[in-house]
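Collaborator request, handled under Task 6.
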Amino acid sequence: MRRLATIAGLAFLFSIPLWLGNFYLLHVCIITGIFIIAAMSLNLLLGYTGQLSLGQAAFFGIGAYVSSLASLGFEVHLLPDWLVTVDPKPVWFGMACAVVVTGLCGWAIGRIAFKVRGAYFVIVTISFAEVVRLVALNWDELTQGPMALNNIPPLSLVIPGLLDITFIGKVANYYLVLVFAILSYGIIARLVRSRAGRAMIALKENEALAASVGIDVTKYLVLATVMSAAIAGAAGALYAHYVRIVDPNVFLFIYTVTMVIMVVAGGKGTLAGPVVGGVIFGLLPEGLRSLAIAPEVQWIVYGILMILVVYLLPQGIVPALRPFLQHRRHLDAQKQPPADIPASEAMS
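Structure tokens returned to the collaborator:
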């Protein structure tokens, strides 16, 4: 039954561009999908290790800038007689560089930040995000500063004689983001169900007890940070090559807050939580805007709904629905005839 529901859900997602004629709504779906990927990356750290990172927007922005710069080409004058020049590279190579560089940044931050816990870890991640934003804002020679990087090329996949696809336009980018979201979901699901994932969950539940049975605390926390940063970097690269312009505002703290809302409201520590929270709180502003009410009223309603979700469903939407779904499965199982009784006799 679960497999059929999964197939039906995927079929619905792949069919959306076929019947959704409004390109603006398709744009909203694309942006929502990108932030769902970023929220899934944060959930790996917040939901499965219990570590709150408020610097996730830094990895998102680093991924956007690295992929953009690699695709556009850049030069840096580090010393008067030392010229570093990088010619433009294929977009797929730039996106791969974004994943690698953000993963390395996650490793470095993990090694430093996990020497502390609690509020100190949060301060380290916020400080990292602010430092990266200031670098992007003030290093004009590399990032163009507030002037932004523009004319970023879209992703192209070319295999001579077999394939030539350029992901430009709403429909192509929707499918690109959807495939990346499915891959990210699969990678995270595989990780959390592995031995490493069980170790991360043990650290969240009781770090001292986990350490006492031989779990390397730093190793698994750093692994979670590296994977979280790499997936967030991939989301940032998707964002850059979709909007085709990147400026220091990509590091804004509100993006991290958006990811946290998606994770907490959907249900942290669940695979489906960031997806459900992302769909609801990503599309909710557009739903409120369609009611043609004043912008300030829209955000007041948004805030009230968010407070109600957190107050009435403190564990998140997905954990709150889980008992209901389990009850339905139990009722369906009771309706099935025993294996040794023919179905025709059970119906008579």
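The cover message to the collaborator said: "The chain has a mean pLDDT of 84. Strands lie at 74-79, 82-86, 149-150, 156-159, 163-166, 245-246. Please let us know whether this matches your experimental observations."
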